[in-house]
């Protein structure tokens, strides 16, 4: 059925919200073919209609032409929505990953999308550099309101001496509790030395 | 707004602390704090108070309202009033949550305080739910006087969104005489495009 | 710590906008930034930019950073300043991000509006750098869409320019009156207008189109 392929592109977007599936060359080709085909048919019918009216025959092509036109418009809309929403997704990824995309995502882009991504990257960088008088502001950090610098942790092992980034030393003993800067704790929590105590 | 953002707003609220250290005035952009003299109370923003308390550098003086008797009265008033009672603090939930979590030892009968604050919140939320109908069915605007930022935020996105939809339907009816499905959709908006295909 | 910033006070009743110089303390500027942040967060449309406030606060940030490098052996002072810097940076960045998101989402509509404002000699809502960004972004979309439609027999349609994504100015917002406001006109669909007076501090849930001007001229704020 007409419009079916274009519609499946949109369904694909909807199924993959927030991620970027491979650029669907195959289906896009089908949709393009369908559009070209419908435009040709409409032009042919339009020509016929003129011929007919010249020789005085009255075949009405209006309904057919309008229907085809509606399908063309529908397809166009889907094509644009498909491409636009992929760009929006790419945009989000620029904010998440920075100007260099992970290879598995890069592989899913069309040539034109890769171009757009680097253009977007550079216009964003230009804008961020322009903020304030002090060489700019990086807007891709400080994404969440800052939280308390100190957190309470429980030490799970006898770790011994640990040097904080300001040079001071702490003796970490099993089952003792400490108030330490969050940034200092994150590694040790991952290593299983600390357990974060949440009230 | 997400809860962290609401908390961020509430953290500028001033709280009285009793420092255990001495220090001259600190010139913060948000205003000067101090000078700090050990055992003399001084007002600081909540985020500073929490930080000092975590480093064991102060005792917190709970706000006047954070007291079982006062809160019981407030709870009674909230129960009996049809309208929302004005809260003693625009950020009572945030103050309650943060202070009770880092400074429970400085608050007398902390567990009871915690429970009553929660009760008041619950009463207000249930009042809010039952007044939603009047809010939506009534006029083109609704009064939300005396609701705190956090309470207002709990209505999002549902209530404003419902109002949007009702407004949309009214507009359609006035345009075509009858409700219609043909809401003008922006071409590129995928959520709209996608939902017409479902 | 007194600083001067120039504030553009718009008068909705007249076409002339007056400039007023008001001295603000840093704390007041911070308060204004917070308000601008919330307004931008909840208003469906992009609001007139507040770069005067942004730049002022960023100046404060640099100033504090500089002073911090001279502070030694005072962990407490340092950590409090550091924490505040984080708060300021978050506020300013978040504000600018919100605007950038709107600029991208409504790019063609915003460019059209800015064009109209320039023609009428009105103040732009975007600052120059934002406007540059908007133009680049719009062009990059045009280019991308045109590339995709190369296969089209005949003239390539530019549908995306005819049916713009526009903000829904009828969306409902929570608003707080900063001072007493008389005669707020509320439009009802199909019904007569209603006039409401608002007391200082009163809070209402209302369709944005009725109160947008009160936000832009600072009589009210969104919450």
From TrEMBL, chain A:
<comment type="similarity">
    <text>Belongs to the GINS1/PSF1 family.</text>
</comment>
<protein>
    <recommendedName>
        <fullName>DNA replication complex GINS protein PSF1</fullName>
    </recommendedName>
</protein>
<feature type="domain" description="GINS subunit">
    <location>
        <begin position="60"/>
        <end position="131"/>
    </location>
</feature>
<dbReference type="Pfam" id="PF24997">
    <property type="entry name" value="PSF1_C"/>
</dbReference>
<comment type="subunit">
    <text>Component of the GINS complex.</text>
</comment>
<dbReference type="GO" id="GO:0000811">
    <property type="term" value="C:GINS complex"/>
</dbReference>
<feature type="domain" description="DNA replication complex GINS protein PSF1 C-terminal">
    <location>
        <begin position="147"/>
        <end position="198"/>
    </location>
</feature>
<keyword id="KW-0539">Nucleus</keyword>
<comment type="function">
    <text>Required for correct functioning of the GINS complex, a complex that plays an essential role in the initiation of DNA replication, and progression of DNA replication forks. GINS complex seems to bind preferentially to single-stranded DNA.</text>
</comment>
<dbReference type="InterPro" id="IPR036224">
    <property type="entry name" value="GINS_bundle-like_dom_sf"/>
</dbReference>
<dbReference type="InterPro" id="IPR005339">
    <property type="entry name" value="GINS_Psf1"/>
</dbReference>
<dbReference type="GO" id="GO:1902983">
    <property type="term" value="P:DNA strand elongation involved in mitotic DNA replication"/>
</dbReference>
<dbReference type="InterPro" id="IPR056783">
    <property type="entry name" value="PSF1_C"/>
</dbReference>
<keyword id="KW-0235">DNA replication</keyword>
<dbReference type="Pfam" id="PF05916">
    <property type="entry name" value="Sld5"/>
</dbReference>
Automatic annotation (TrEMBL), chain B:
<dbReference type="GO" id="GO:0000727">
    <property type="term" value="P:double-strand break repair via break-induced replication"/>
</dbReference>
<comment type="similarity">
    <text>Belongs to the GINS2/PSF2 family.</text>
</comment>
<dbReference type="GO" id="GO:0006260">
    <property type="term" value="P:DNA replication"/>
</dbReference>
<dbReference type="InterPro" id="IPR036224">
    <property type="entry name" value="GINS_bundle-like_dom_sf"/>
</dbReference>
<dbReference type="InterPro" id="IPR007257">
    <property type="entry name" value="GINS_Psf2"/>
</dbReference>
<dbReference type="InterPro" id="IPR056784">
    <property type="entry name" value="PSF2_N"/>
</dbReference>
<dbReference type="Pfam" id="PF25005">
    <property type="entry name" value="PSF2_N"/>
</dbReference>
<feature type="domain" description="DNA replication complex GINS protein PSF2 N-terminal">
    <location>
        <begin position="2"/>
        <end position="61"/>
    </location>
</feature>
<dbReference type="InterPro" id="IPR021151">
    <property type="entry name" value="GINS_A"/>
</dbReference>
<dbReference type="GO" id="GO:0071162">
    <property type="term" value="C:CMG complex"/>
</dbReference>
<dbReference type="Pfam" id="PF05916">
    <property type="entry name" value="Sld5"/>
</dbReference>
<comment type="subunit">
    <text>Component of the GINS complex.</text>
</comment>
<dbReference type="GO" id="GO:0000811">
    <property type="term" value="C:GINS complex"/>
</dbReference>
<keyword id="KW-0235">DNA replication</keyword>
<feature type="domain" description="GINS subunit">
    <location>
        <begin position="65"/>
        <end position="166"/>
    </location>
</feature>
UniProtKB/TrEMBL annotation, chain C:
<dbReference type="InterPro" id="IPR038749">
    <property type="entry name" value="Sld5_GINS_A"/>
</dbReference>
<protein>
    <recommendedName>
        <fullName>DNA replication complex GINS protein SLD5</fullName>
    </recommendedName>
</protein>
<dbReference type="InterPro" id="IPR031633">
    <property type="entry name" value="SLD5_C"/>
</dbReference>
<feature type="domain" description="DNA replication complex GINS protein SLD5 C-terminal">
    <location>
        <begin position="167"/>
        <end position="219"/>
    </location>
</feature>
<feature type="domain" description="GINS subunit">
    <location>
        <begin position="79"/>
        <end position="146"/>
    </location>
</feature>
<dbReference type="InterPro" id="IPR008591">
    <property type="entry name" value="GINS_Sld5"/>
</dbReference>
<dbReference type="Pfam" id="PF05916">
    <property type="entry name" value="Sld5"/>
</dbReference>
<keyword id="KW-0235">DNA replication</keyword>
<dbReference type="GO" id="GO:0000727">
    <property type="term" value="P:double-strand break repair via break-induced replication"/>
</dbReference>
<comment type="similarity">
    <text>Belongs to the GINS4/SLD5 family.</text>
</comment>
<dbReference type="GO" id="GO:0000811">
    <property type="term" value="C:GINS complex"/>
</dbReference>
<dbReference type="GO" id="GO:0006261">
    <property type="term" value="P:DNA-templated DNA replication"/>
</dbReference>
<comment type="function">
    <text>The GINS complex plays an essential role in the initiation of DNA replication.</text>
</comment>
<dbReference type="InterPro" id="IPR036224">
    <property type="entry name" value="GINS_bundle-like_dom_sf"/>
</dbReference>
<dbReference type="Pfam" id="PF16922">
    <property type="entry name" value="SLD5_C"/>
</dbReference>
């Amino acid at each position: 059925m007409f419009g079916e392929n274009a519609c499946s592109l949109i369904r694909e977007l909807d199924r993959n919200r927030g991620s970027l599936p491979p650029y669907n060359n195959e289906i896009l080709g089908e949709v393009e073919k369908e559009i070209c085909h419908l435009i040709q048919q409409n032009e042919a019918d339009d020509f016929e209609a003129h011929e007919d009216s010249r020789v005085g025959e009255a075949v009405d092509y209006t309904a057919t032409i309008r229907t085809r036109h509606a399908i063309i418009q529908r397809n166009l809309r889907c094509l644009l929505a498909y491409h636009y929403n992929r760009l929006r997704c790419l945009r989000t990824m620029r904010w998440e990953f920075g100007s260099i995309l992970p290879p598995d995502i890069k592989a899913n882009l069309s040539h034109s999308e890769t171009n757009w991504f680097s253009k977007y990257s550079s216009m964003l960088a230009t804008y961020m550099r322009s903020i304030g008088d002090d060489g700019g502001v990086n807007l891709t950090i400080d994404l969440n309101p800052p939280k308390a610098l100190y957190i309470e942790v429980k030490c799970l092992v006898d770790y011994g001496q640990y040097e904080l980034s300001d040079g001071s030393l702490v003796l970490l003993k099993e089952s003792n509790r400490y108030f330490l800067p969050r940034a200092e704790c994150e590694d040790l929590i991952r290593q299983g030395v600390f357990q974060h105590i949440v009230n | 707004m997400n809860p962290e953002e609401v908390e961020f707003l509430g953290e500028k609220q001033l709280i009285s602390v009793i420092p255990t250290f001495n220090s001259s005035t600190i010139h913060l952009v948000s205003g000067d704090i101090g000078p700090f003299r050990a055992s003399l109370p001084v007002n600081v923003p909540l985020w500073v108070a929490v930080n000092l308390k975590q480093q064991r550098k102060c005792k917190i003086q709970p706000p006047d309202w954070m007291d079982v008797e006062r809160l019981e009265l407030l709870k009674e008033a909230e129960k009996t009033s049809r309208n929302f009672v004005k809260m003693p603090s625009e950020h009572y939930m945030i103050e309650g949550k943060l202070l009770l979590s880092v400074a429970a030892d400085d608050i007398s009968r902390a567990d009871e305080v915690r429970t009553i604050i929660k009760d008041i919140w619950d009463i207000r939320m249930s009042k809010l739910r039952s007044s939603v109908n009047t809010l939506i069915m009534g006029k083109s605007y609704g009064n939300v006087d005396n609701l705190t930022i956090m309470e207002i935020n709990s209505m999002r996105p549902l209530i404003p969104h419902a109002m949007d939809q009702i407004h949309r339907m009214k507009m359609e009816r006035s345009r075509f005489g009858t409700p219609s499905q043909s809401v003008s959709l922006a071409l590129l908006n995928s959520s709209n495009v996608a939902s017409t295909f479902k | 710590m007194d600083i001067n910033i120039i504030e553009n006070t718009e008068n909705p009743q007249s076409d002339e906008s007056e400039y007023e110089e008001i001295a603000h303390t840093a704390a007041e500027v911070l308060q204004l930034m917070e308000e601008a942040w919330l307004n931008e967060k909840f208003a469906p449309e992009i609001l007139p930019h507040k770069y005067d406030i942004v730049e002022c606060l960023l100046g404060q940030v640099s100033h504090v950073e500089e002073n911090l490098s001279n502070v030694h052996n005072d962990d407490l002072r340092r950590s409090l300043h550091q924490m505040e810097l984080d708060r300021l940076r978050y506020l300013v960045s978040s504000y600018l991000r919100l605007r950038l998101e709107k600029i991208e989402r409504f790019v063609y509509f915003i460019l059209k509006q800015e064009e109209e404002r320039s023609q009428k000699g009105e103040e732009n809502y975007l600052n120059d750098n934002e406007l540059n960004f908007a133009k680049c972004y719009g062009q990059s979309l045009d280019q991308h869409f045109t590339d995709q439609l190369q296969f089209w027999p005949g003239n390539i349609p530019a549908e995306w320019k005819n049916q713009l994504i526009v903000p829904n100015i009828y969306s409902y917002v929570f608003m707080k009156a900063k001072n007493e406001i008389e005669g707020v006109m509320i439009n009802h669909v199909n019904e007569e207008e209603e006039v409401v007076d608002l007391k200082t501090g009163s809070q209402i849930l209302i369709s944005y189109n009725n109160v947008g001007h009160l936000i832009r001229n600072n009589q009210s704020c969104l919450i």
